Amino acid sequence: MDIEKRLLGKDKRAAARLISLLENKDPEGLEILKKLYHKSGNAFVIGITGPPGAGKSTLTDKLAKALRKQDKSVSIIAVDPTSPFTGGAILGDRVRMNDLSMDSGVFIRSMGARGHLGGISEATSAAIKVLDIMGSDYIFIETVGVGQSEIDIVKNCDTTVMVMVPGLGDDIQAIKAGVMEIGDVFAVNKSDRDGAKRTAREIEMMLDFNKDVKWRPPVKMVVAVDNQGIDELLESIHMHRTYMIDNELFDERRANNAKNEVVELIKERIEHTILDKSQKEEKLEYYAKRVADREMDPYSAVDAVFDDVKSALQV
Amino acid sequence: MDIEKRLLGKDKRAAARLISLLENKDPEGLEILKKLYHKSGNAFVIGITGPPGAGKSTLTDKLAKALRKQDKSVSIIAVDPTSPFTGGAILGDRVRMNDLSMDSGVFIRSMGARGHLGGISEATSAAIKVLDIMGSDYIFIETVGVGQSEIDIVKNCDTTVMVMVPGLGDDIQAIKAGVMEIGDVFAVNKSDRDGAKRTAREIEMMLDFNKDVKWRPPVKMVVAVDNQGIDELLESIHMHRTYMIDNELFDERRANNAKNEVVELIKERIEHTILDKSQKEEKLEYYAKRVADREMDPYSAVDAVFDDVKSALQV
After folding, report:
1. What is the pLDDT of residues B295-314, one digit of tens each?
2. Which site among A230, B204, B225, B255 is 20 to 30 Å from A252 CA-CA?
3. Residue A31 in contact with partner chain B when CB distance is under 8 A
4. Helix, strand and coil in chain A, % to nearest 5
5. Which residues are CB-contacts of A5 (< 8 A; sequence separation ≥ 6)?
6. Which of A91, A178, A293 has the CB atom closest to B83's CB atom?
7. Nearest to A258 among B91, B177, B291 (CB)
8. What number is the ipTM of this complex?
């Protein structure tokens, strides 16, 4: 017991326990977080995103090790919105069954889509707060892919690194277009491979289109597996943070992130209210069946359910 | 004008126009859809999903061509939740600037994440209805990747084909675990490549775990680019449909899909109501700033905003 005291004493098991409680929307866990929330805000939260196969886990590990040499404490949350697993041994952990997990200054956690109530983005926000309160200097949020869920997740971050890799084919090129804007720093990993320079050039060209932005995201060449370019990448990450602070954009981004979180939490609460109420009364099933049978169109069904929702919110 | 009459006369441009109207939540478009909704429900809606690079576009094209030989009309919606583009020349269309697009019995449409109001899953649902009303015998919904958004999208389908491919690396293997359950039929594409049999075996092993399910998803080997295994895959897709109908699961799935859609539409409407109202009053900004400044925790902010939301919903 006394998770609170243990967390403030940098006990990693207390952090893990509190994150699990929050994943389950445990009221006690929530009370602890609310009470300690004012102690958060000191960690530098870094998103690591990019397509599958880009080597994000390895890159995150190397960045973490570089920071450990400077005696900084580091937390890593590996988030997989498509995985049913949480907390345990998925992806991130599997790769990391190495010296990092033995290091007392490193906390590692996997989060999946299920195993917690509510959205994964909200669960990630809560975990960040816990690790921030624990006193982590750096918190890495690593995603598995780069879809809409991942975009929502990195909205919790101060700086986002978009990891690219040469030769991932046309589909990946198409994906890039929609997500370029979330990258504050770009890393071309496996840059000893053929086509790395072309990939970097393509990123630069895309960045050229975005003339509104004052911060020009740097594109760094790395070979994570050989520890090449890691220090330079870390420098770029810090440069972005300094730029944000100097231009009064840092507080703005954090306010924006907070706004996103509050909106998501409201949506989540309303959703539960609707579903609980409508499920209980089996109204949703009734209307869904009518829609499926083509007796009623879905838009009229929404009108019908909506009145019900309003009264549910009066509770 | 008179989109309604033209749509019922199988005019593809009328369908395209109506889909655009619906993407923009145009009230007139919505009225047409509500009026004609009872004419929908006859098309067989097939989801084609899987990781980037699996060759989903090519496979969809070949399936469409096989159906055209049987004189069936076919619609293809290529959905990319991470692309900012819509309606125009992204991915799907680019690859398909071939004989298919010249065929009067084929309708092709791309949908991106933006360029329409509301969620992409709801926009896809609306487009399916339009093409169904137009009299398409088959509607293919093809996704670009396989994240959470894509899972939501294929919840609109009667049968979902999960396309795999040999040698996509460890990250893809990890992704598979969470999404296996959405596949009713599996296709191992590019099965002339090394490792295809191993990929098929791995899929079979994963399917072995799922003992609850009566329908055992078949795993078919295809080489889409050479038109190999396409007829056999199509047969499996039809077998799944027959199985669903024979076991009274078809109506159940459609009712479930309808329920998902109604819930999503309600969430969407509530979200707009909250955001409109809160933005206007700048309350959200006020609380977000307090949260970012650590003067208030986000959970208490939600409590504070919630009262506001309730009154907004009274409108």
Report:
1. 888 888 888 877 766 666 65
2. A230
3. no
4. 55, 15, 30
5. none
6. A178
7. B291
8. 0.75
